[in-house]
Automatic annotation (TrEMBL):
<dbReference type="InterPro" id="IPR050109">
    <property type="entry name" value="HTH-type_TetR-like_transc_reg"/>
</dbReference>
<dbReference type="Pfam" id="PF13977">
    <property type="entry name" value="TetR_C_6"/>
</dbReference>
<dbReference type="InterPro" id="IPR036271">
    <property type="entry name" value="Tet_transcr_reg_TetR-rel_C_sf"/>
</dbReference>
<feature type="domain" description="HTH tetR-type">
    <location>
        <begin position="8"/>
        <end position="68"/>
    </location>
</feature>
<dbReference type="GO" id="GO:0003700">
    <property type="term" value="F:DNA-binding transcription factor activity"/>
</dbReference>
<dbReference type="GO" id="GO:0000976">
    <property type="term" value="F:transcription cis-regulatory region binding"/>
</dbReference>
<keyword id="KW-0678">Repressor</keyword>
<dbReference type="InterPro" id="IPR001647">
    <property type="entry name" value="HTH_TetR"/>
</dbReference>
<feature type="DNA-binding region" description="H-T-H motif">
    <location>
        <begin position="31"/>
        <end position="50"/>
    </location>
</feature>
<keyword id="KW-0805">Transcription regulation</keyword>
<protein>
    <submittedName>
        <fullName>Transcriptional regulator, TetR family</fullName>
    </submittedName>
</protein>
<dbReference type="InterPro" id="IPR009057">
    <property type="entry name" value="Homeodomain-like_sf"/>
</dbReference>
<dbReference type="Pfam" id="PF00440">
    <property type="entry name" value="TetR_N"/>
</dbReference>
<keyword id="KW-0238">DNA-binding</keyword>
<keyword id="KW-0804">Transcription</keyword>
<dbReference type="InterPro" id="IPR039538">
    <property type="entry name" value="BetI_C"/>
</dbReference>
Length: 199
């Protein structure tokens, strides 16, 4: 009788191996060969699941999106809206080792999005997720439904820009500076919202 292979379980096993390599050595080290070695597989067996480096990155980005969504929507967030919004949006910034590694995947996949449809599709999904987070944040801080489009675009650009600068210039953009810059922007949003005439 032929052996039944649980492909979902094997992909989950590969995901764990891939993220061990990424967290330990950086996303640039996550090659088919290194992940196969980490999982105890042969490279040819791994290529049955991921034929190219881009496919690996797309798979990694799916994990990033799932992890970020879970953190962003955590049930334990309580308190004033301004405090809640800061905590939610900080989950999208590279403030610790895990989130730095996740942002590195985002950056590498972004570089491939111009030439690879699969990378472009995942980047669009990730971008849509950040935009929804920005819409929610602006709506909570200003009380406007729907949220002001220009304010959403500015916050979205700030989140992307802070992430990029933190990856490229970690000495100039340490975690506390990221928090402070985000806080200043959110404070301004809240002030603008409270000063706006009732609609």
């Amino acid at each position: 009788m032929p052996k039944i292979v649980d492909h979902d379980a094997r992909r989950a096993e590969l995901a764990e191996a891939m993220w061990r390599v990424v967290y330990r050595d950086g996303v640039g080290a996550a090659t088919v060969r290194s992940i196969a070695a980490e999982a105890g597989w042969s490279p040819s067996a791994l290529r049955h699941y991921f034929a190219t480096q881009t496919e690996l990155l797309v798979f990694a980005m799916e994990h990033v999106m799932a992890a970020a969504t879970q953190r962003f929507t955590a049930d334990h967030r309580t308190g004033p809206a301004r405090h809640v919004v800061q905590g939610m949006l900080e989950e999208l910034l590279p403030l610790d080792r895990q989130r730095v590694r996740e942002a590195e995947v985002w950056l590498l996949l972004a570089a491939r999005a111009q030439v690879d449809p699969a990378a472009r599709e995942r980047m669009t999904e990730a971008d849509d997720g950040v935009r929804r987070a920005a819409e929610l944040a602006v709506a909570l801080l200003t009380g406007e439904r729907p949220a002001d489009e220009a304010a959403v675009a500015r916050l979205h650009a700030l989140l992307d820009g802070l992430t990029l600068h933190a990856l490229l210039h970690p000495d100039r953009m340490p975690p506390q500076r990221l928090r402070d810059l985000l806080a200043a922007h959110l404070d301004q949003l809240a002030r603008d919202g409270s000063a706006a005439p009732p609609g």
